[in-house]
Design brief:
Elements lengths: L2 E5 L2 E3 L5 E8 L4 E10 L6 E7 L4 E3 L7 E6 L4 E6 L8 E11 L2 E6 L3 E5 L2
Parallel strand pairs: 2-11
Antiparallel strand pairs: 1-3, 3-8, 4-5, 4-9, 5-6, 7-8, 9-10, 9-11
């Protein structure tokens, strides 16, 4: 019953910016952690950024100082602001969330959105 819907991907030049959004909907009791993962062709899916219910954040070393994750609790939405984008940031970006509903706590994934950084 819970869905994560992503938006905001696209094509951008090196040095440019994009903002991804991920909105959770459904019968939600609480969202504990939301995160962003990415997967490039031929590579493993990796954690990019995460934010807890208390607002603490974690970032992959490769994006520290360039990416920022934030959230709007009232809208059950998490954002990933990506600045100073590099070609190596090109990947499909997936939203992930630990969410409790009436049945218990579950791990949910968004559908993925393509980010392409190219000149």
């Amino acid at each position: 019953q819970v869905q994560l819907v992503e938006s905001g991907g696209g094509l951008v030049q090196p040095g440019g910016s994009l903002r991804l959004s991920c909105a959770a909907s459904g019968n939600i009791f609480s969202i504990y952690t939301m995160g962003w993962y990415r997967q490039a062709p031929g590579k493993r899916r990796e954690l990019v950024a995460a934010i807890t219910s208390g607002g603490s954040t974690n970032y992959a070393d490769s994006v520290k100082g360039r990416f920022t994750t934030s959230k709007n609790n009232a809208k059950n939405t998490v954002y990933l602001q990506m600045n100073s984008l590099k070609p190596e940031d090109t990947a499909v970006y997936y939203c992930n969330a630990d969410i409790s509903d009436p049945s218990g706590e579950y791990d949910y994934w968004g559908q993925g959105t393509q980010v392409t950084v190219s000149s």
